[in-house]
Write a structure and sequence with these properties.
Number of helices: 1
Number of strands: 34
Largest sheet: 12 strands, mixed
Distance between the termini: 64 Å
Structural class: mainly beta
Shape: elongated
Strand order of the largest sheet: 4-7-10-13-16-19-22-25-28-31-33-34
Oligomer: single chain
Strand content: 25-35%
Length: 255
Amino acid sequence: MKELKKKNVLIAKSAKIGKGCVFGNNVVILDNVRIGKNSYIGHNVVIHKGTKIGNNAYIDDGCILGRMPRSGVSSTRKAKKTLPPLEIGNDCIISAQVIIYTGTKIGNQVLIGDLASIRENNIIGNKTIVGRLVMIEPNTKIGDSVIIQTGTHITGDAIIEDKVFFGDEVSTSNDNYMGRCPKGYKFKGPHIKRGARIGSNATLLPRVVIGEEAEVAAGAVVTHDVPDRKVVMGVPARVVRDVREEELIFKPKKI
């Protein structure tokens, strides 16, 4: 790699930096990185090969962007050949000490809180908020205007549709066998439909479907599918009532 070293900012010659960008101390920008105009890159940030960042980005101190997964020698070699670069859209805020892996695509106007970790092969839609200390595992799709609050764990192989809300420290999983899966087992996380709300400390088991605008109460353990526009509570979670009409974002179609 041919490098241009100026003070304590290291920028590969093949990187392309938009007009009006500002850099902190000890920034490292590797080969073929693209950063849009008027972006801020904070202190001690590392941006790995091929990462694409849109206009007006704010990347806070200590972030690592475009990291390659390192789960083993063979898987690492395969990942280098198959994973596309990390892409981050326009007007995004990436807070301090966030780690985002390569192969992930993030939309516009996304906010990611301090110390969050987002693994490879994820898609995150526009105007979504990923809170502090959130962990998002690989191969998950998250829609637009989703809110994920502090400390929540989003499992791999999940689908989260638009305008879903997660409270603090929600736990989701994609493995019914707790690491002792039979040969050929296909991992699958929850499918959470648009407008659903998941209360703090709730637990969602693998493969459950949370219906459109359904509500899972705080601390509930969801072991079965939840119907559209129903409230579930308890361990295991059971339907207790309908979601109130005034709380609905998407009004049901009248027949």
